[in-house]
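Q: Convert this sequence to structure tokens.
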Amino acid sequence: MKTAAAALAMLASIVCGGVAQAAEPVDLLLVLAADVSRSIDDKEFELQRKGYAAALTDPRVIAAIVGGQHHAIATSFVEWSGAGDQNVVVDWTVIRDEEAANGMAATILSAPRSFVGRTSISAAIDFAIERMATAPVQADKRIIDISGDGTSNSGRGVTEARDDAVAKGVTINGLAIINTGANPGYAFHTNPPGGLPKYFEDNVIGGPGAFLLVVENFETFADAITRKLMSEIAAASGRWRAASLR
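A:
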């Protein structure tokens, strides 16, 4: 009876389109999670968007991707703000050449701003973990890239979300943006006791090889995210230690 059942199951899989095959391997699954909370004004938002687009199409980043074991990565770009505010700007995209990178960059630049609200880093992490489960490809290395200019002030505890993600084998890297132009009313949010970099180090980043980059202002965001992507992509292939950019 068991043999007959197995045969019927095999026949059903063939009728429905064939035996399922393993997902395509890539070197890295990367969720780029960009803070668009209200402490980031329109000018800063544009600089951040342009920075992501410039980094994805930078020849050095493309070279790092092509130089990997599988010569490809998969990335999704999301924007986040408060506890209920997360939006997929660009769904999972496999990048293995300039054409794919240019297409993703163009979509990022043309999309409207998703939110202007509070700041929930924990919800951003949880949402990114959900995105990981929808990836059409698979990779041994999975990273969530959190960029932000302030502390988490909405949703569940950020360390709880971080620890849950790390327990799933996901690394969270941080890009702490020193927002010198923020409204004075946001001072405690953008410059917490000990400084924003310490806050990110203590509460946000975690997992194998996790690291933090500090962006001194939005004008230098493009260079910082470019260096960060190069490090993450190369580290995923074991060719460069991410810790070198600490």
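Strands lie at 24-25, 29-35, 73-80, 86-95, 137-138, 142-148, 171-177, 212-215.
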